[in-house]
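Side project, low priority. Logging it here so it doesn't get lost.
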Amino acid sequence: MTVPRRLLTLALDSASPELLRQWAADGTLPNIARLLSTGMVANTLGPEGMEVGATWPSFYTAETPGGHGICWVDRVIPGTYRQQRLGPNDFDHLTSLWDVLSAAGRRVVVLDVPFAKPLPRLNGVQVTEWGVHDGVFGFHTTPAALRRTILRTYGVHPAPPTCDTHRLTAEGYRDLAAGMVRGALARGGMTCRILADEPWDFAIQVWSEIHCAGHLMWHYHDPRHPAFDPAIRAKDGDLLREVYVAVDSAVGEVLATVGAETTVVLCTLHGMSHSAGSSLLLPEMLRRVGALHLPSRTSPAGASAPRRRGLRGGLKALYHLVPEAVRVPFYELRQWVNQRWLGRGAPIGIDPDRTRAFMMGFGAGSTYSGIRLNLRGREPAGSLAPGAEADRFCAQLGRDLLEFLDPDTGRPLVRRVVRTAELYPGPCLDELPDLLVEWEHDPPRGNTVVGDGAGGVWRGVSARFGALEHANGSGRTGAHRLEGMFVANGPGIAPGTLDRVVSTLDFAPTFARFFGCDMGPVAGRPIPELLPDG
């Protein structure tokens, strides 16, 4: 009797490949170590310049950002100078790997894949956002009754609903790590139960706990980080390591339930390291070089309205006297209501008549930032003509940005500036930044709200454009890197190490071909070494 093919993907969202290898080698992660010792291992690379938001859509569609149009959790609302958080409708045009497999009659189990829209008519089971970083859709399941079962058995995810925090005590970090550990272990149990209760051909589970832990607890691990405190480390240990250990335990529990006929792929599609770069300086850098102008009092599209006298003006003045600990959560709530309920978005904060380029950020501490051109014919008050004028402007802007130096090291803040169209041509190119700025990856950047605030004020200097600085009030001490890795074990897969780097886009075509399906005309290509027929 022929044993049916099964493929199980276990994804560790934003795990550091270096830490996985190091802790597997020293016995910290025994289950991952066994996979590495018996499987085929390869390095991977995510979408260059857009590893934050484009990684998962690129993974499950096999398209570049130019093909799917997703690059970050926020997007510019077409025809405006306002920024809107991604919503469910922004993913309607995407065709995923599980869409293809389900349509071909394969039974699939899709558990907590980031940025994966709920599919009520999926041939199988789906859990969406039971504890996930950067949620878009909310907690949904297919079938719908599974939601009640999960809440009755496991409750809500024990970690906070968002891993963004402005200030935590040592006790707060311990509680956060404990929540991540409980969530990771519960996720392992949930996966085992679903896989045992449901027939399936393809299954994927994603552990997002490592993602949030990497952002918020990197300074517990890395002695180079300005917020690293040897005394706290000696007392509390490496909290980041604790989360990795919990995920390894959950992975081992899941592996114990599958047979030798199952092909298992464990992967981290993009990595994590210390916060770096100078993204918070970019708006002021653009202003200094004359590319960006702040709104004037008469600018209708500016971020702030003209100053008003009377009751409203007085209330606004009083609002700014409220302590930051009260004012920041209130502001975030107001922004959430504007963006998620009312669909208004948030103003970008420029004078569109005079601005030629503005920032599309990927988060504080990211090694990349985006710049959008204020193009005539695309933006409502475009001031830059497409073609030769835009080309000249981009070339000059790149030269100008390279003049800004780190005053402590003397090295340029910017490694390079790249035209996005050269990397990702495609039908969704206009949804993306026009330029990508790659920042210098060292030294690690600090935060004013973590530890004693060391390194929390970021600085730059230019002989032509002067000195500038910006305080980093983010609570994140870790940031993404493009590099990832995978290890595959299963029938017909030879152990060893691939001598080439695999693109994130290549997984979906490979997994589709594994079941005799085709993703269609996509950018990714099958990985022959993972296929039984080569």
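Brief comment: The domain at 6-275+478-530 is CATH 3.40.720.10 (Alkaline Phosphatase, subunit A).
Revisit when time allows.
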